[in-house]
Design a protein that fits this description.
With about 150 residues, the chain is α+β, with helices and mostly antiparallel strands. The chain is built from 4 helices and 7 strands, in the order αααβββββββα. It has helices at about 1-30, 35-40, 45-50, 140-145, and strands at about 60-70, 75-80, 85-90, 100-110, 115, 120, 125-135.
Length: about 150
């Protein structure tokens, strides 16, 4: 009888442990940004990209379009999330201010040195857009929030 009780207790312990592991795994998914769950890729934070400066790294960014700069042949727009802002160089149509974007791109760095400032580098990290994965126009975003 004692062996039966021990066997039931061990099986109950295994099931309880497995349930605890599964429950904690599911609950931890709640802290992931929704974009990771929806598209299956890790969306990078703009602030991290600017600090690491990993040139030529492929990144996925999600944010809202701020300033825009049209050029001949291509354009640039500033993308912002809760951690910072970064310029995105694109050859596609220029998104409107307030549009929400999800994009794939490569990290680039443009060095700018000025002799009068003792050769100090005033360069900036930017993104060369490879693909616009999702684009939600500002008008649609405002409708969803209301």
């Amino acid at each position: 009888m004692t062996a039966t009780i021990k066997q039931v207790w061990v099986q109950g312990f295994r099931i309880g442990s497995l349930s605890l592991i599964l429950a904690s795994g599911l609950l931890s998914c709640g802290s992931l940004p929704m974009s990771q769950l929806n598209i299956g890729v890790n969306v990078d934070r703009i602030g991290d990209i600017q600090q690491k400066r990993q040139v030529d790294a492929e990144v996925y960014l999600k944010g809202k379009v701020g300033n825009r700069a049209p050029f001949v042949g291509n354009a640039a727009y500033q993308l912002q999330d809760g951690t910072g802002r970064i310029w995105v160089l694109t050859k596609q149509s220029l998104p409107q201010r307030g549009d929400e974007m999800l994009l794939k791109g490569n990290v680039r760095y443009k060095s700018i040195t000025i002799k009068n400032l003792a050769g100090r580098d005033l360069g900036e990290v930017y993104i060369e857009e490879m693909e616009q994965l999702q684009r939600n126009p500002a008008a649609e975003t405002e409708k969803k929030e209301q």
